[in-house]
Write a structure and sequence with these properties.
Length: 512
């Protein structure tokens, strides 16, 4: 589906940011940034993680105040006192990291920050709240029940709630930070239709994404930041993916994407490190059998809801198995908890690093060594000297960019946070590495680095089972590709026969 692009720039500017600078703890993250947002235009904001994109948007939305510079909105200099004021004035944001309240209803989350409708007694009219939320959800193609609690939703469903909430106000400026990270192709198509409708109404849209196909499909213009500085702004019709990548990271595209050769020709007839026989969890996983050998990267593909995440969670002891068997090096094992899984050498990097993996307000060092802290006891105390030395090794080996190992992991970019999480599980010297969306929400440069780390780990003999919703990633890294649909394994494809078309054929439920 091609989305109509309005390439004739509108003379009226919705919002300008002039000479914006911002520092945290003496570290400058934005340096004299200028950007204009035109009405009825999609403006892609691009750059590696840590380039300053999110900080700039948080200033625009009133979450942060700039140290220097000003915002010009509706033709006048403006200084937001807080995010609520910016929202009330028509600045709406879909954040990359979901900001929903899990213990209240979908409807309450959708209308949060708006005035709830009241009944004759002056009480909240919950029927109208849920009715209004239902209409907003329907407008983006979602049939979620607004009365359900957000805590019951998948990550993809939560993303749809975030989008509906952003659309609940009559926004003049809409910021979308990685809005499609968890969506299916069908949901993305619907979102792009909505974006086009908003453009026709004159809404200025900032679109942040690491997916080049989306940038060229939906954007009119793009601005690139690097290391907190403005690099260029250019109409999207006057550039190319190769040029944008080179501008963002200072390297040629050919240096970033090198498909490694398969290195597993020797594994046939060897005992698999991980074997699953007829695994069922009575919820989403249905009679799955698979095997992963030492040094092999097996990719799991499938649409949202196919049961991929549920499968690796069951293997790691995070959900109950109703039937089936797990074998490690040919020996049947009983895994009923993550502790059991770790004892058998299984590591798990979850889908959502911030909600499920990291301790955001703890240090890089503590996050790295969390899984093996008991091994560093000296009498009844922790030997922090040894812990620090070990953390230094992982920082060096994985190329983690951090001001200090004492820095809170919250302050790292997405790619470096993911490396910290990887190092935690490498600290247990695993035999099997379960990766669920290992490069979600990281920039192109960090994605390439993580790919190289995964490939290097496999070459050392680690058995890797990797989930990814990005077909190029699955095809670039996997020695074999397993395709799931509705909880069942539909295909087991060798690398040489795996094409995007064939993977999607099985992912949609077709069987030859």
């Amino acid at each position: 589906m091609n989305v109509h692009r309005n390439i004739s720039f509108v003379s009226s500017i919705a919002l300008s940011m002039r000479a914006i600078s911002k520092s945290f703890s003496g570290v400058t993250v934005l340096k004299n940034i200028n950007i204009d947002l035109h009405k009825g235009e999609v403006h892609a904001l691009m750059g590696e993680n840590g380039a300053g994109k999110s900080t700039l948007m948080k200033i625009m939305a009133g979450i942060y105040r700039p140290d220097k510079g000003e915002i010009i909105y509706r033709g006048k200099p403006t200084a937001w006192h807080n995010a609520m004021e910016a929202r009330e004035k028509g600045i709406s944001v879909i954040h990359q990291e979901l900001n929903l309240s899990p213990n209240i209803s979908i409807g309450e989350n959708v209308l949060m920050g708006s005035k709830f409708p009241k009944n004759r007694l002056g009480m909240v009219d919950w029927n109208k709240v849920h009715e209004r939320a239902h209409l907003l959800l329907q407008s983006i193609g979602s049939e979620l029940d607004p009365r359900k609690n957000v805590s019951t939703l998948s990550v993809a469903q939560q993303q749809m709630v975030e989008i509906a909430r952003a659309l609940s106000i009559e926004a003049e400026v809409l910021v979308m930070d990685e809005p499609t990270a968890s969506l299916t192709n069908k949901e993305i198509d619907k979102l792009f239709i909505i974006i086009n409708e908003l453009k026709q109404k004159g809404v200025a849209i900032v679109y942040i994404s690491h997916r080049m196909d989306e940038i060229f499909r939906i954007s009119d213009r793009c601005t690139i930041l690097r290391d907190g500085e403005w690099i260029t702004s250019v109409p999207i019709t006057e550039t190319s993916p190769e040029h944008l990548v080179k501008t963002m990271v200072g390297r040629e595209l050919s240096d970033l994407f090198q498909k490694p050769q398969s290195h597993t020709n020797w594994i046939q007839n060897k005992t698999p490190v991980l074997e699953i026989r007829s695994l069922t969890d009575n919820k989403r996983v249905k009679d799955i059998s698979l095997e992963v050998h030492a040094g092999e990267i097996v990719g799991i593909s499938g649409l949202v809801g196919a049961g991929r995440t549920e499968l690796v969670r069951a293997i790691f002891g995070l959900s109950d198995i109703s039937s089936g068997e797990i074998l490690i090096n040919g020996q049947s094992v009983n895994i009923s908890s993550p502790e059991d899984a770790m004892r058998y050498g299984i590591a798990h990097v979850p889908e959502s690093r911030k909600e499920q993996g990291l301790f955001l307000h703890m240090s890089v060092k503590e996050n790295m060594m969390m899984a093996v802290m008991p091994n560093y006891r000296k009498s009844s105390l922790l030997d922090w000297s040894r812990i620090s030395k070990e953390a230094d090794v992982y920082i060096h080996e994985l190329g983690i960019k951090t001001a200090s190992k004492e820095q809170k992991v919250l302050r790292l970019s997405g790619g470096n946070q993911q490396k910290v999480l990887l190092s935690r599980w490498l600290s247990i010297s695993p035999k099997v590495l379960l990766l669920d969306e290992p490069t979600r929400g990281v920039d192109i440069g960090a994605k390439t680095e993580i790919h190289r780390i995964i490939y290097k780990l496999a070459k050392t003999g680690l058995a890797v089972l990797m989930i990814s919703s990005e077909l190029p990633e699955i095809m670039a890294l996997s020695d074999r590709v397993l395709v799931m649909h509705e909880g069942k394994l539909r295909a087991n494809l060798q690398r040489e026969e795996a094409t995007q078309e064939k993977i999607m054929y099985y992912a949609t439920g077709e069987i030859q």
